[in-house]
């Protein structure tokens, strides 16, 4: 019986699943964003976020623990040198899953999984959205539209002279 065993096996043996998650985590660390299925992305999120948390304190033991999971020296050094510096003040939630639709061949639900602090496009959108709008009645909007051309007319006459 498999009561209370809510772990997604992804249709693989334990060794295959571990190797796949390790490779996907290395790719995520190197490229900052990868495309995969939603089920694999959710499994990868549970796999990689504790490793990123472990990378916040740069000790020999934490490096050994992370290396035993990743098995890639380049990914480990990048995680400890660049990523841990950028996420030092973040208390968790280092990755973001963005759904992109369904795959053409087998209709699997696809997504991006990315490191949160490395998507500059999302950060710029948040800054741009801070401008607030005020609600005005229709009469106030019409009077503002009428006043604007009147103010622009004297400026045009001054340029003509």
Notes on the structure:
It is a single chain. The protein is α+β, with helices and mostly antiparallel strands and 161 residues long. The protein has a domain at 14-118: Alpha-Beta Complex (50s Ribosomal Protein L17, Chain: A), CATH 3.90.1030.10. 57% of the residues lie in helices and 12% in strands. The protein contains 6 helices and 3 strands, in the order H-E-H-H-H-E-E-H-H. The chain has a 3-stranded antiparallel sheet. A hairpin with a 6-residue loop joins strand 2 (95-102) and strand 3 (109-115). Helix 1 (14-31) packs across helix 2 (38-54), helix 1 (14-31) crosses helix 4 (73-86) and helix 3 packs across helix 4. The longest helix is centred in the last third of the chain and has 23 residues, at 138-160. It is extended, with a radius of gyration of 25 Å. The mean pLDDT is 86.
Features:
161 residues; alpha+beta; 50s Ribosomal Protein L17, Chain: A; three-stranded antiparallel sheet; 12% strand
Q: Write out the strand line-up for the largest beta sheet, numbering strands in chain order.
A: 1-3-2
Instruction: Compute the number of helices.
Output: 6
What's the pLDDT, averaged over the residues? 86
* Low-pLDDT regions: none
Q: What radius of gyration results from the CA coordinates?
A: 25 Å
User: What is the H/E order?
Assistant: HEHHHEEHH
Number of strands: 3
Kindly identify the CATH topology of the domain at 14-118. Answer: 50s Ribosomal Protein L17, Chain: A
How would a textbook summarize the main sheet?
3 strands, antiparallel
CATH class of the domain at 14-118, anyone? Alpha Beta
- CATH homologous superfamily grouping of the domain at 14-118: Ribosomal protein L17
Roughly what fraction of the amino acids lie in strands? 5-15%
Q: Give the overall silhouette.
A: extended
């Amino acid at each position: 019986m498999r009561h209370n065993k809510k772990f997604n096996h992804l249709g693989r043996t334990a060794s295959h699943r571990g190797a796949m998650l390790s490779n996907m985590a290395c790719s995520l660390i190197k490229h900052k964003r990868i495309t995969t299925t939603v089920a694999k992305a959710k499994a990868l999120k549970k796999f990689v976020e504790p490793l990123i948390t472990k990378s916040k304190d740069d000790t020999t033991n934490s490096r050994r623990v992370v290396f035993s999971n990743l098995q890639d020296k380049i990914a480990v050094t990048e995680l400890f040198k660049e990523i841990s510096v950028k996420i030092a003040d973040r208390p968790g939630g280092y990755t973001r899953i963005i759904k992109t639709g369904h795959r053409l061949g087998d209709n699997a639900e696809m997504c991006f999984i990315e490191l949160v602090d490395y998507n500059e496009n999302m950060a710029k959108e948040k800054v741009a959205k801070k401008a607030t709008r005020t609600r005005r009645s229709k009469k106030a909007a019409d009077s503002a539209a009428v006043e604007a051309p009147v103010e622009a007319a004297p400026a045009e006459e001054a340029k003509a002279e």
